Amino acid sequence: MDDGRVSQDPAAENDTAAEDPNDTNTTTTSAPVAARYQRMRLLFVIAGVVLITDLVTKVLAVAKIEPGESVRVIGDVVTLRLVRNPGAAFSMATGMTWLLTLVAVGVVIGVVRIGRTLRSPWWALGLGLVLGGALGNLVDRFFRAPGVMQGHVVDFVSVGWWPVFNVADSGIVCGAVLLVVLTLIGLEPDGTRKVEKK
Hints:
Layout: H1 10-18, H2 30-64, E1 71-74, E2 78-85, H3 97-115, H4 121-143, E3 153-159, H5 167-184
């Protein structure tokens, strides 16, 4: 019997509630979360590419280059020669292997924590390069001779007067330079720009 009242489908009520403009759970939080997820994924993809490239090139260097041998790539400017490095990037701090290992672990943890707030693809690129490089050298620290946390890093690329380095070192340096530039221009990890107060 029609009593003049308009009935409403419960499903329609649910749709209306879902589209309520006052409900900010889906409109104001899902977008930032999705953006952070994408940047984190970009960070880990870049880190993975650097890590895999570093590991593969080190295996090839150890297998193909004899100790003391110098393989010319571009005359005497770019050569390949195998060096076991107990120190940091570019053969620095050679007597502090265990400490450098702890520092590298700290860098990895720090990068991952910062990565959770990322919304800038440039920061994701820089942090991904640093993370991949740090992980690449950490693998050597833990699994190469003479032992755990004392392992010597495999370096094999020599360019002119520059110290012998590897792919991981390149990732760390390039990523660090990019992060410094981003900081100087005021671009924050969350994608915002820092405005100086006058």
